[in-house]
Amino acid sequence: MVKNDERLGNAPLGRLMVSMALPAVAAQVINVLYNIVDRIYIGHIPGYGELALTGVGVTAPILMVISAFSAFAGMGGAPQASIQLGKKNYEGAEKILGTSVAMLLLFSVVLTAVFQAFKTPILYAFGASDNTIVHAREYITIYLAGTVFVQFALGLNTYISGQGNAKIAMLSVLLGAVTNIILDPVLIFGFHMGVRGAALATVISQALSAAWVLRFLTGSNSVIRIRRKQIRLDKKTVLGIGALGISPFIMQSTESLVMITLNTGLQKYGGDMYVGTMSIMASVMQLITIPVQGVAQGVQPIMSYNYGAGNLKRVKDTFLRMVLVCLAGTMVFAGIAVLRPEFYARLFSSNEELTMLTCRYMPVYFLGITIFGIQMGCQTTFLALGQAKVSLVIALLRKIVLLVPLAVLLPRFMGVDGVYRAEPVADFTSVAVTMLLFFFTARKILSGEQPQ
């Protein structure tokens, strides 16, 4: 009987990509509902919905940092585990998995302690005002109690899809998301808990997802399993995970820095209502990019496995198809934001002033995202092939080198408009540079050298 992971190298490519990508897209879309659904309900709380929405939006950088650490261990380890599966080194793959579990436990303890201790000054630094701090503090206090669930649910789910079980990975996310959608209105409105209810619903939902992931990875249906003897911080394995994980970590953690920069700039040059527009647009950004990321992450194990197995033609064919799909996705979803911004804006607020202000700036903000599928495809390919250095350069380029400085400098000349215009300038520039990097390095990467 053929093992499930072996179909990554043998199954017809078109059907395999669909079977891997569709569950991954569904999982990514469902996962983003944790925050999106919270914000939709919070934005419609009678009397203070717009302030509550802004307050919860200010907590976004903390949530991004927490998920970034899960990506550091999960996305840094899972591609390497897939490469080892391609080499039939199952013990080596389990060692990587066990080390990731140990890292995620450590991250959970440290992150919870630090953010709980310093949450108030951190939230003010992230753009909270005296009007919104109470809502931000209520939400994050409860959310942080579930940090370990977030780490396991996000960080270990990549090891399920990495062995070819994309549907199982999707179901783990679906379980939590459905629970969250059901609990949100009950706790927010039924029990009159407001933002505290939204946070509690998220914690309970993530706990169920984490339990599902752990049950699968310790059961007989998993190709590789979590074994107690492997749950330790092996130095060599940690460094290997870190070398590859630093790229997705920077991609996600710098999103936190971007949000801080944008929120503080909007607060300085605009006020609470402008910060509210960014809370909406950050959610819309997730709605646009998450499905495309799902395609890329779903296809990634195919490239990793076949690179480990030495089947380079299959790697190239997979890459070309993936980039075309990613580009089509961002052009369609971001195109709606550019041409019909009210479609997205009215999902999150019934406040007419906030809605109109969001519609005014959304077309500019999302213009560059229309072609961002190219960068997402190339970034995922570098990651899948274990090319840590190039992946890191791309991760740093858009946000640290371009977006953050532009978001600080442009408002000095353009006022609040400059904060929004920084995004498309950074996007177009980073896509162009990424294409050049991939063109000049692809031949070397796919020259037949096997990963070490």
Automatic annotation (TrEMBL):
Its main location: membrane. It is a multi-pass membrane protein. The keyword Isomerase does not apply. Pfam families: MatE (PF01554). InterPro entries: MATE_fam (IPR002528), MATE_MepA-like (IPR045070), MATE_MepA_subfamily (IPR051327), MdtK-like (IPR048279). GO terms for molecular function: antiporter activity; xenobiotic transmembrane transporter activity. One of its GO terms (biological process) is response to antibiotic. The chain crosses the membrane at residues 12-34, 54-75, 96-118, 138-156, 168-191, 197-217, 238-262, 274-299, 319-339, 364-385, 392-413, 425-442. Keywords: Antibiotic resistance, Cell membrane, Membrane, Transmembrane, Transmembrane helix, Transport. GO terms for cellular component: plasma membrane. PANTHER family: MULTIDRUG EXPORT PROTEIN MEPA, SPORULATION PROTEIN YKVU. Belongs to the multi antimicrobial extrusion (MATE) (TC 2.A.66.1) family. MepA subfamily. This is Multidrug export protein MepA. It comes from Schaedlerella arabinosiphila.
